[in-house]
Each structure stands twice: as structure tokens, then as C-alpha cells.
Design brief:
Distance between the termini of chain A: 52 Å
Largest sheet of chain B: 6 strands, mixed
Radius of gyration of chain A: 27 Å
Shape of chain B: globular
CATH architecture of chain B: 3-Layer(aba) Sandwich
CATH superfamily of chain B: Pyruvate-ferredoxin oxidoreductase, PFOR, domain III
CATH class of chain B: Alpha Beta
CATH architecture of the largest domain in chain A: 3-Layer(aba) Sandwich
Largest sheet of chain A: 7 strands, mixed
Largest interface: A-B, 59 and 60 residues
Helix content of chain A: 25-40%
Shape of chain A: globular
Oligomer: heterodimer
Bound molecules: thiamine diphosphate, iron/sulfur cluster
CATH topology of the largest domain in chain A: Rossmann fold
Number of strands of chain B: 6
Helix content of chain B: 25-40%
Radius of gyration of chain B: 16 Å
Structural class of chain A: alpha/beta
Number of helices of chain A: 21
CATH class of the largest domain in chain A: Alpha Beta
Structural class of chain B: alpha/beta
Strand content of chain B: 15-25%
Number of strands of chain A: 22
CATH topology of chain B: Pyruvate-ferredoxin Oxidoreductase, domain 3
Strand order of the largest sheet of chain B: 2-3-1-4-5-6
Number of domains of chain B: 1
Distance between the termini of chain B: 24 Å
Chain lengths: ~600, ~190
């Protein structure tokens, strides 16, 4: 049956059809939906792991025990999982193992634009690059076969458009694959130097075999048309190039991009007059073609950053895009993403944004929007978990000065469990006097509301052990720990004042659910009055001072005609933050 | 047939995703090759969003280029102006009579111009649909997206597809009647 699937859905479907037994991931755009979809198949064990390293290690264990396993992550997630990856390539597999990385050319929801094809080369494992959803499904099945026949994990590299674009897919049935037998093999799975030296040689031999395979696999193919121009490409760029050039040029479409089919490439390059390399981000294919002694046109013409969508290719090659309407664009106002109405992070950023003499080390999550207007309340954002450890380092330096700047580190619950916990252990161990804030909105918000170790539920929606952050933090030895309701600005302010004065580390946990969270049974009990009542502006009392706009709430606007503040009833979720900010107390709870 | 491109734009949370899902499923069932591209993630938090739908005999790129859309359907007034350069010079615009102030307007740094629809009219064939009012009349302002879906169906001459059946198969039973009415009202709103 044909279905309209995203690439992520097709990866999940393909892995399911390939009989996968174990799937683990940590959410991250654009890879999140792979595991979300795999979790819907009852035959597949699926889990959200606390981070990508743990996810991959789980998949490695499952593979060695004889099951087929898959671990999926966004591009930066593979940095976190890189340590196990490099040595897993040495041991090889028992049951087939596939790792999916979802890269983000153009950085729609990411902090950087790294090209993870480089990992395949550096870690020496085979890599497949699907171009659309059908290829996602077919290639993930092929990846399991390659994994088992060559005794290696396989990397699949997707990009945002492949993950999130939908196209028609021919789906099949699940092929049950028996769990392979396990027995102890210390010369394969125990990577001590004596073993690894031997495995390193085996790895080189395996790569040779894979290179031969790459030459004849049908997923690497040439399409000859006119021979004046030949395009070498992989992934979604194949369709973009076809959109622009149609049948007027020849194509070498590479589905397996490590090891590369050098003979096939050489043959293609010899046949065509001019070679274009169309690939997003790094000159990965380009450098390989150059090494073969050809002079292709790549990044001298095409940009090294962003997506190579048809308009970009058209502009680069022909110097013009399609005809468009010319009009005055000066009336267009930007629409940056904002914290949702009722977001529990709002109160915190309002309060912290008012303090100018501190450094705020931020992290990755919805609360990164605390750096935007009107809060402007974050000094740094690097990677998940870094807030607390960077804050620690910064505080140690500030301490050397005369009047030390105080550092506040802030991250979310999911980010705390991801790697923030390691950072907090460092603060406890090496004692810096930072104030560490865990914005616990009871869910992983940014990536679309996934359960996490603190939410009490698994990816399959089953109740499970709930890790209580306050208990955990106290167990690390922190003496100053307080859990507060972030919508209570007075309490928040008092707590911040008290903890900023300490010469010891402290932890504040703000506990209130994300405005978009689907409440669990426990949430309904704990947050009984959450999001029940709306606020309204009493236009008699409102003096039009606009101070409430500092809440930066999308439900709140200023009526240019009446010169009064206005609450949009549909959007308001009644957090009460704006009401506490108003100096005239003109924003009130609506009568029920 | 040449590939047709429908560009749906709006603000995160307005329901462009459900509208494009119904549209693409209908097109698929009618036998077209279909591709659709959306960017999820950060922009969901009240940012500008787009769903790009392309259909025909064989579709190559899932993304629409500037100057490539046959129709631009905007769920919000300002967004229509933002995306107008994606429209073919001969293309059509359907715009929802509905404004959501972006954060710079809320904080008072920028103003939301009152005459955007006139600007659009000066450059393209524009149909204004008061989808918000229609949906409210039908009893649920959230059905705005389905009213606009109806407008697309009419404007792209896709009325032969059995949309009612599709709605029955796709949406929750409690919303079937509402959505069927909404689709029809949307179709009537376009000449
Ligand atoms: C290594 C890595 N993995 C995944 C992501 C994607 N990601 C960005 S924010 C985030 C979750 C944030 O959740 P939480 O800390 O609970 O904050 P919230 O968004 O709920 O406020 C994830 C998974 C990433 N940026 N880096
Ligand atoms: S999704 Fe949740 S955490 Fe993220 S901005 Fe919205 S309310 Fe806040
Ligand atoms: S109470 Fe105020 S700040 Fe909170 S959601 Fe409503 S308008 Fe926004």
C-alpha cells in the first residue's frame, strides 16, 4: 500500500519492516519523529534515553545480545554519542545496528550546522544518504543487511528536508528476524589495547570489502543524458538539481557515500565535460572527486552554508531566480518565535532580566528564548548541559576579581537529565558559588513534548519510576535547594535575592507545567488550578504605561486606538505574570 | 500536467499542518504524485510557518521556490505580505482576514500597518476570506483552517475529490460535521 510519509516516518516504518527489536533515541529536531513513530509498533521495544550516548550504548548492547537495534539523533547528538560510536565500529555487531543522524543545513532549530558525513569517514563506518521517504524506507532495510553481512554498524545521514518532507512510499510487511545467539567473545567485544590492535586491522579489511560493495550497489547509479554537464550529488540535493536541470544534464546519484565508489565516480567524470558537485554544507564529495585528479565545480559556485534548494542552484548557475512580484517589503514586521502564552519560563526571565549585574549562562530548550526581547536575559548558549558547567568556570574566574560578578546558570528538566546532571556534580564537587536554576516544566518542551526521566512516563505512555529532581540534587550535597512556583514573582524574587547573596552553590527548581503539555493524572492533581482562569484588563484602571508588555506575552497587546493594554482571551492561559507586573493592578482575574 | 505548487503560510499554532495534511491526502487519493515540506521545531513557538504542497504527475523538489507558487494561502494578514515573493506573478492569493501581532508590535518597536490587504491587491489576484468569522459562526474559531482548506479546493479546482469522505476518515468524530460545513463555507467564499 502507498502512504504519504515523512522521511522520519519512513525510517521508522523501514526499521519496523526490517524486524528491528530495540530502538532508542533522545529527541532533537529533525530526528524526533523517528522514535515517536517506532514507539507505536508493539513489536518494537522503544525508549527515550536521557541522552544520545546512552541511547547509542543501549543500541550497542542490544546488538551484541543478538537483536536488531537502531539509535536516532539530531546532528549534535552524534557529538554526544561519538565516544561509543568510534569503538563500536571496531567490535562490529551481532544483530544489525543502524545509527541515524539528522543534520540541519540552514539551522532551522539548531545551534550549529555541522556536516555529519565527516563522522562516517572519521569513524570508518558505511554511510547511506536517502533522498526522499521511499529511499528512507528502502535504505534502512538495506542498512540492516549491510550491518549484518559486513559485521559493522551503519550510519544513515538525513537532513531536515528529508526528515520532514512527505512523499509517497510503498510500504511492506514486517519480516520477523530471529534474535541471534549470544556467546562471550572477548577478542571481539572487549576493547582493551591488545584486542583493539587486532580489530583495527580487521576494520581496514572490512572497509576494503565495503568499498567494493559501494561500486556495485544499485543505490549508487549514473543517469546519462547530455554529456556536457555531469552533476554528482547525494540526498535531497538530487531532487533539487533535477528540478533545475531536468534531463538536460547527466547525474551521478550516490546513495552510499562512505566508502565512496571511486571507480564509478572516475568513470562518470571521464564521460562528462564539466562536473558540478551539488551537496549541502561541507565539500565532502568535492574533495573526494578532487583527490581522483578531476577539477569539479563545487563550492567556488555553490554556497557552503544553508540548503541548496532549487532557487539557490538556479541563482548560482544561471545568475537569476524565477520571476517574482516586486513589492515594498518595508511593512513586513519580523515574527521571531516567542515563549507561549502561559509559559512557565516567563516569570523567571522577567525577574532575572531585571538584574543587570549578573552573568546568566543559558542552555538549549524553549528557555533559550529568554535571550530574546523583551527579556534579553541570557549571556551564553553553547550546547546541552553547558549552562551549569560554563557558569562554574566563569564563577571561578570572576572570583579572582575585586567585586565578583555573580553567575546564574539555567537549564530545563530534560536538559538537566541529559548532561546537566554531570555539570551539577562538578559544582557540588568543586564548589563554585553559582545559583543553578532548573526550569522544570514537567516535559521536554522545545522538541514537541516528549516524556523524560522526571515526567513519570515512558515513550509508550506507560507509567514508570519518576526521578524527583529535588531529592536528587539534595543527594549531591547541596545545602541550599528550593522548589518554587515560577508564576509567583514575589517568591521568585525573594529566593533569587537570598541565593545570590550566598557564598556557596545553590539550586532553585521552578516547577510548573509547560502550557502545551497534555496533563497526566498526576499533573491534574498537582496543578489543579493551572490554566483555568483568564485575565482581563480593567480599562478604567489601566493608564496605558505599557509596563506589562515586559512580560513579552503573545496574548497581551497594546491597543493603539484606546491606548490601553488588551488581553486576547483565546490565547491567555491565566499565569498571572502580567498582572503582577502592572503597577496599577489593572490586570485582573476574569469573573467566572 | 505540470507540477502545481500550493503554499500555505501562517503563524505557529494556527493549524496549517492539519489543513495541508488533509489537502495532501486528498490529492494522493485522487492519484497525483504529491510532496509536502514543512519546517517543524523552533518556529512552532509563535513564529512564521509554511507548508509547501506540490502535486502533479511526477514531483521532484518538495520545496517551492520564490516565484514558484500557483497559490499563496495565508492564514494571517502580515504573513501574506512576507511570503508574496514566493507567488508566481500570475498566481492567486487567498488571505484570511485575521491579524496576530508579532512580538515587535507587542513590545511597541514596530507597528502593524493597516493597509496590507490593499498592498496585496495592488500586486496580485487576491481573495479575502473572513475565515475567523465563518468559523466562529459555525461554533468553533479553530475551524478556521478548514474554511481555508475549502477556499484552496475551490481555487485550485479540486472540487471533484471526495473531501467529505476524507474528513470522515481523518478527523475525530465529534468534529466531522463542523469540518464538513467549514469546508463548504470555504469553497463558497471563493468565486
Ligand atoms: C545534544 C543535543 N540533543 C538534542 C538537542 C535538541 N534539543 C534542543 S532543546 C531540547 C529539549 C529541551 O527540553 P527542556 O530542557 O526540558 O526544556 P524546555 O524546552 O522544556 O523548556 C532538545 C532535546 C540538542 N540541541 N542537542
Ligand atoms: S512549549 Fe512549553 S516550555 Fe516551550 S515556550 Fe511553550 S509553554 Fe514554554
Ligand atoms: S495572564 Fe497575562 S502573561 Fe499570563 S498568559 Fe494571560 S496575558 Fe499572558
Amino acid at each position: 500500500m502507498k502512504k504519504l510519509l515523512t522521511g522520519d516516518e519512513a525510517i521508522a516504518r523501514g526499521a519496523y519492516e526490517a524486524g528491528v527489536h530495540f530502538a532508542a533515541a533522545y529527541p532533537g529536531t529533525p530526528s524526533t519523529e523517528i522514535l515517536e513513530n517506532l514507539a507505536q509498533y508493539k513489536e518494537v521495544y522503544a525508549e527515550w534515553s536521557p541522552n544520545e550516548k546512552v541511547a547509542l550504548e543501549g543500541a550497542i548492547g542490544a546488538s551484541i545480545a543478538g537483536g536488531r537495534s537502531i539509535a536516532s539523533m539530531k546532528h549534535v547528538g552524534l557529538n554526544v554519542a561519538a565516544d561509543p560510536l568510534f569503538t563500536f565500529v571496531y567490535t562490529g555487531v551481532n544483530g544489525g545496528a543502524v545509527i541515524v543522524t539528522a543534520d540541519e543545513p540552514a539551522m532551522y532549530s539548531s545551534q550549529n550546522e555541522q556536516d555529519n558525513r565527516n563522522y562516517a569517514k572519521a569513524a570508518k563506518l558505511p554511510m547511506l544518504e536517502p533522498a526522499d521517504s521511499q529511499e528512507c524506507l528502502d535504505m534502512v532495510k538495506l542498512a540492516f543487511e549491510i550491518s549484518e553481512s559486513f559485521d559493522t554498524p551503519v550510519l544513515m545521514r538525513l537532513t531536515t528536508r528529508v526528515c520532514h518532507a512527505k512523499s509517497l512510499v510503498q510500504c511492506g510487511e514486517r519480516q520477523e528476524v530471529p534474535i541471534r545467539e549470544y556467546h562471550r567473545q572477548m577478542d571481539k567485544y572487549v576493547c582493551v589495547p591488545a584486542v583493539s590492535r587486532k580489530l583495527r586491522i580487521k576494520l581496514a579489511q572490512r572497509l576494503k570489502k565495503l568499498a567494493a560493495y559501494s561500486e556495485q550497489t544499485p543505490i549508487n547509479f549514473a543517469q546519462y543524458n547530455d554529456l556536457k554537464v555531469g552533476v554528482i550529488t547525494s540526498g535531497d540535493c538530487y531532487f533539487y538539481a533535477q528540478e533545475v536541470f531536468g534531463d538536460t544534464v547527466s547525474y551521478l546519484k550516490l546513495g552510499m557515500t562512505n566508502p565512496l565508489p571511486v571507480n564509478l565516480i572516475r568513470e562518470f567524470c571521464q564521460k562528462v565535460e564539466k562536473i558540478y558537485i551539488i551537496e549541502e554544507n561541507d565539500p565532502y564529495l568535492e574533495e573526494a572527486v578532487r583527490q581522483l585528479g578531476f577539477a569539479p565545480i563545487g563550492q567556488e559556485l555553490f554556497p557552503y552554508t544553508g540548503e541548496l534548494t532549487p532557487e539557490v542552484i538556479r541563482q548560482a548557475v544561471f545568475g537569476q531566480v524565477l520571476p517574482t512580484i516586486e513589492y515594498d517589503q518595508s511593512k513586513i514586521v519580523g515574527r521571531p518565535p516567542t515563549l507561549c502564552a502561559g509559559c512557565p519560563h516567563r516569570g523567571f526571565f522577567y525577574e532575572i532580566g531585571r538584574r543587570k549585574d549578573i552573568m546568566v549562562c543559558g542552555d538549549i530548550g524553549c528557555y533559550a528564548l529568554g535571550s530574546a526581547k523583551p527579556f534579553n536575559a541570557i549571556d551564553t548558549t553553547i550546547c546541552m548541559g553547558a549552562s551549569i558547567s560554563m557558569g562554574h568556570g566563569a564563577q571561578k574566574i570572576f572570583k579572582l576579581g575585586e567585586k565578583p560578578t555573580k553567575v546564574v546558570s539555567v537549564l530545563g528538566d530534560s536538559t538537566f537529565f541529559h548532561t546537566g546532571i554531570n555539570s551539577l556534580i562538578n559544582v557540588a564537587y568543586n564548589q563554585s558559588s553559582t545559583v543553578n536554576i532548573i526550569l522544570d516544566n514537567r516535559i521536554t518542551g522545545m522538541t514537541g513534548h516528549q516524556e523524560n526521566p522526571g515526567s513519570g512516563y515512558t515513550v509508550k505512555g506507560e507509567p514508570t519510576n519518576l526521578i524527583d529532581i529535588e531529592t536528587l540534587v539534595k543527594a549531591l550535597g547541596f545545602r541550599h535547594v528550593r522548589t518554587v512556583d515560577p508564576n509567583d514573582l514575589t517568591l521568585l524574587k525573594e529566593t533569587l535575592d537570598a541565593f545570590l547573596d550566598l557564598d556557596e552553590p545553590s539550586v532553585i527548581i521552578t516547577r510548573w507545567p509547560c502550557a502545551l503539555k497534555k496533563f497526566s493524572k498526576e499533573d491534574k492533581e498537582e496543578f489543579r488550578d493551572a490554566f483555568c482562569q483568564k485575565y482581563v484588563v480593567d480599562t478604567e484602571t489601566c493608564i496605558g504605561c505599557r509596563i506589562c508588555m515586559r512580560a513579552g506575552c503573545p496574548a497581551l497587546s497594546f491597543d493603539q486606538e484606546t491606548k490601553k493594554a488588551k488581553v486576547d482571551k483565546v490565547q491567555c492561559l491565566g499565569c498571572g505574570v502580567c498582572a503582577q507586573i502592572c503597577p496599577k493592578k489593572a490586570i485582573k482575574k476574569e469573573d467566572k | 500536467m505540470t507540477t502545481k505548487s500550493v503554499l500555505l503560510v501562517g503563524v505557529g499554532g494556527q493549524g496549517t499542518i492539519l489543513a495541508s495534511k488533509l489537502l495532501t491526502t486528498g490529492l494522493m487519493q485522487a492519484g497525483y504524485d504529491v510532496k509536502m515540506s514543512e519546517i517543524h521545531g523552533m518556529s512552532q513557538r509563535g513564529g512564521s510557518v509554511s507548508s509547501q504542497v506540490r502535486y502533479g504527475e511526477k514531483v521532484l523538489s518538495p520545496v517551492i521556490e520564490p516565484g514558484g507558487a500557483d497559490i499563496l494561502v495565508s492564514f494571517e494578514v502580515m504573513e501574506a505580505l512576507r511570503w508574496l515573493n514566493y507567488l508566481k506573478p500570475t498566481g492567486k492569493v487567498i488571505v484570511n482576514q485575521y491579524q496576530l501581532p508579532p512580538m515587535p508590535v507587542i513590545t511597541g518597536e514596530a507597528v502593524y500597518a493597516a493597509d496590507i490587504i490593499e498592498d496585496l491587491r495592488a500586486h496580485a489576484d487576491v481573495t479575502v476570506v473572513n475565515a475567523a468569522a465563518i468559523a466562529s459562526e459555525l461554533g468553533n474559531p479553530k475551524a478556521m483552517n478548514i474554511v481555508l482548506l475549502g477556499a484552496i479546493i475551490k481555487a485550485m479546482q479540486l472540487t471533484d475529490i471526495d473531501w467529505e469522505q476524507l474528513i470522515r476518515e481523518t478527523v475525530k468524530p465529534a468534529f466531522v460535521d463542523l469540518n464538513i460545513k467549514a469546508v463548504h463555507r470555504g469553497m463558497e467564499a471563493v468565486e
